[in-house]
């Protein structure tokens, strides 16, 4: 599968515009197109800026944002539930790249933002099992991150068959991405970005252009004929 980049999306949109209204496409440069693509992607990810945690001595890279991803499928494996990350988040201290995970237990329900799962460091789930007082996390659900997967301490898929998840993941602001950096968007979002940006430019007015001194800018009527009229 091809990597989705700013430049690839820009070329695709320019090709669509060129086939529709050539003069409109010729008035748009790639740099302007990339700015618009970044704005659309940021809006789609519902990004929110978060602050540098100076008190803890931790630095969050400039341009970092929280991306909101929802509708993520949960599967059961080896008696536990797990979910794949939609993108690879930033590598931050204490695994804060996975900022929060929220459940939606019913198909027509809402994401329970006040009941986020408890993050655990790798290996802590096994350690908790040896502690009778806290081995059930006081009734809460925890998770560990292994690569591109999060594994939960309970089989929530069996308990709630319709469960899906939403995640806030730390990513870089799209404006900080280079032309050929892989963008943190889902495959199905690629076409949505193309459509939204195409709408912006396909509706702009086509500029009048003077081809030569004997042609009217408006309708291509010879100038001498206009004077006679």
Report on this model:
- The strands form two sheets. The protein has a five-stranded mixed sheet with strand order 3-4-8-7-6. A four-stranded antiparallel sheet has the order 1-2-9-5, with no helix packed on it.
- Helix content is 30%, strand content 21%.
- It is elongated.
- By secondary structure, the protein is an alpha+beta fold.
- The protein has seven helices and nine strands.
- 20% of the residues are buried.
- The chain has two domains: 82 residues, no CATH class; 122 residues, no CATH class.
- The model has no long low-confidence stretch (mean pLDDT 80).
Helix/strand order: HHHEEEEEEHEEHEHH
Q: Helix amount, in percent?
A: 25-40%
Averaging pLDDT over every residue, what do you get?
80
| Uncertain residue segments | none
Strand content: 15-25%
Structural class based on helices, strands and sheet pairing: alpha+beta
Distance between the termini: 61 Å
Number of helices: 7
Question: How are strands sequenced across the largest beta sheet?
Answer: 3-4-8-7-6
Number of strands: 9
Largest sheet, described in full?
A: 5 strands, mixed
Number of domains: 2
Q: Write down the overall geometry.
A: elongated
Round the Cα radius of gyration to an integer and report it.
25 Å
Concise synopsis of the structure shown:
This protein has 229 residues and is an alpha+beta fold.
What key attributes describe this structure?
alpha+beta, elongated, 7 helices, 2 domains, 9 strands, four-stranded antiparallel β-sheet, five-stranded mixed β-sheet, 229 residues, single chain
